[in-house]
Give the backbone structure.
Amino acid sequence: MTSRPVIAVIGGGAAGTAFLAACARELSADSREFAADIHVFDPTDRFGPGVAYARDTHAALLNRPLSAMSVDYNDPGQFRRWLNRSAEQLRATAIPLDWKAASAFAPRTAFGHYLEGVFAGACDDLEHLGARVTTVRSSVTEIAEATEATGVAGATGTGGAGGGPDAYTITTADGMTFTADSVILAVGTLPPVDVFGLAGAPGFIAQPYPLAPSLACVDPADRVLVLGTGLTAVDSALVLTEQGVRVTLASRSGFVPDVRSSPVSRWDDPEHSFGGLELAARGAVTLRDIYALIDSSLREHGTSLRDAVRPYAERWPAAELLRSRLADPGPAGLLQRCVTALTPAYSALWRALPPGEQRAFLRRHHRAFACLRNPMPPVNARKLVALAEAGDISFRRGVTAVRSEPGGGFTAAYADGSTERYDRVVNAVGRTNDLTAAPEGSLLRDLARRSLVAAHPAGGIQVEPESNRALRPDGTPRPGFHVVGDLASGVHFHSSSMEYVARQAARVARYSVDAHDRYALQAV
């Protein structure tokens, strides 16, 4: 009799769901059975959506059109087809959708419903292929190297066999312990950083998502400062203004996301992305090389990199940038398609850059790149322009400090020497992948403290590029310990979009299925 390997998936959101779906695809395309026990850990009441796509206001939209959203990156129309099949179900939840248009932007909560269905379907598929999938509604507080193979213990005292030579012990917040042969760390992004140390201050909203419950406490008479000018800040501001609140969006750079100008998800010149891969294959690459590649492609289509980034290089006021992009989306649209087409080459190009060039990019250009790579839907841009013209939204750059006042409220200081008073502050600074910013007592902080993983200088966790196995501090790969999602961005650069998460998940699933075959042979 052979024992069954145990896989622990830490995180039941988009990254964990993409991994399970990829495992099912990998196995169903072959004649193999997958005689494994899979435990998926997540403290939320729904597996699939995670925090990012939880039930929320319909005003919070995806920033990518339907044609570009899918858990399977080889099937970009999957989400759109699901919307067509689920029309009646979605009408019952009052979700407004034009699901016939590939360029439509669905509410984030609709994508959450899709992920929930994908998760359930993947679990069913895996069960039919020989796996046993168990969901554990608890957060993981500790992962440690198992000192002895004892199988699954804990509150139930039952579970799969597990306990190979490189096994891990998983401990949950409610005191259960599990032993797993491999770990898939798919916890998504870290919470927003409390840049100005406002935690605990009355009126400070530390995490805006889900928006509806987080922002319901804001009174229409409140003066509200939204920290950040990215997509999270835009979502927060639009929800607040629907409640009749006047809002100031402020950040250090003042950059707002570009306006999505084209529904296409693939560059119409396939040689462009191939050029990126060829450039990376040369070995040492400079930022100048990458910019020249992009500029040459743009010039073939009648514009240039300088023209496309002019509003960011010249630091146009936010409302002016949005009006300009809405009136003439041409250069921005070409550049968006360009940087999207480079997605398959991001990891290789990033790793080909010397560390000094990586640091220079992160310090000088990353914020503008993020605005171009993750533009907002045009409908949101039009709303922001109208709200700015009506005086209901203002944009500030150069915020240098925010402090809470003893009598209540907050004072923000700006680089031009001015100060402003606010009643509430919404922390919408967006994602971070800095392990040192992980909350005290969190799983990620504990993993780094005990050197189970190594922090990458550019953020996230050091991983082996080919397998996404976490690296030890000495640089050797940790057997059976994989990272999926934004925490691998230090190595792969841009890894927060659904397409990139799906690519990583497929790579890790392929490796996990192959490892299962090796395990089965060893156990015979």
Q: What stands out?
A: The chain is about 40% helix and 15% strand.
